[in-house]
Amino acid sequence: MKKAFALLFLFTFFSSYSQNSKSAFDAGEWLKFRMHYGFLNASYATLHVKSDIIDDVPVYHVVGRGETTGFASVFFKVDDTYESYFGKEDGKPYRFIRKINEGGYTKDVEINFDHEEDKAVLNDKKHNKKYNFELQDSIQDLLSAFYYLRNNYDPKDLVKGEAVKLKMLFDDDGIFNFKLKYLGTEVLKTKFGKVECYKFRPLVQSGRVFKEKESLSLWVSTDNNRIPIRIQADLAVGSIKADLDGYNGLKHQFKIIMD
């Protein structure tokens, strides 16, 4: 399950574009997910949107927390925190924090983005190293990407079989091209009832963690919230699934299909 926990924070996407009342989220949104590894109820994770200010810029401050629970924590303990500060007006990331402990695999990273100088400085606190990166168009961190996509892509423009592309920086591996292929719509049965979803396939690197390049699937509600309903992945060893388990502070009505 190593590194698989980060999947939840990698794919919380999609809404119609606007910087006004039509936006997909606002401060106060809180999402909870229950994650399963095989037959185990392995862990829970939350995403909480707050307001803050960085260098006189109004920003959203998103905090993602996750940890294993119950029997799963006995043989594989996870304690992860992800934080992102990104502009309320343009969605640009200003600061990203990643503190994780996954079965003894640890990271303590902070990235500060300087958009006037078009550079980012990554501070690897665990190894006392710093890395400099030149910023590229539409650069996002691991969390800001979720909310940027929720507010900056119109579902009407989605074409089945084609991919949305984005540049991302969240580790010392550097900037990479992220792709999210659209597969159409599907209705899922959830604890809340039936929910119509857009289905996507994030294209990931096969090998150490995933079985194949297209081992990951993502379902996002078609309502104006565009929240993730389910994430499912076939890993190199076993499989993992995350389902929406609770929510609060949604900006729009959560639409449930009534039979």
Question: What does this 3D model show about the protein?
Answer:
With 259 residues, this protein is mainly β. It has 3 helices and 15 strands. The model is unreliable at 1-5, 12-21 and 205-212 (pLDDT under 50).
Layout: helices, strands, pairs:
Elements: H1 7-10, E1 30-37, E2 40-54, E3 57-68, H2 72-75, E4 78-87, E5 93-102, E6 105-114, E7 119-124, E8 129-134, E9 139-140, H3 144-152, E10 163-168, E11 176-190, E12 193-202, E13 216-221, E14 228-234, E15 239-248
Parallel strand pairs: 9-10
Antiparallel strand pairs: 1-2, 1-15, 2-3, 3-4, 4-5, 5-6, 6-7, 7-8, 10-11, 11-12, 12-13, 13-14, 14-15
Poorly predicted residue ranges: 1-5, 12-21, 205-212
Largest β-sheet summary: 15 strands, mixed
Which percent bin holds the helix content? under 10%
Individual helix count:
3
Question: What keywords describe this structure?
Answer:
disordered N terminus, mainly beta, 15-stranded mixed beta sheet, 259 residues, globular, 15 strands, 7% helix
Compose a concise summary of this entry.
This protein is mainly β and 259 residues long. It has helices at residues 7-10, 72-75, 144-152; strands at 30-37, 40-54, 57-68, 78-87, 93-102, 105-114, 119-124, 129-134, 139-140, 163-168, 176-190, 193-202, 216-221, 228-234, 239-248. The chain is 7% helix and 51% strand.
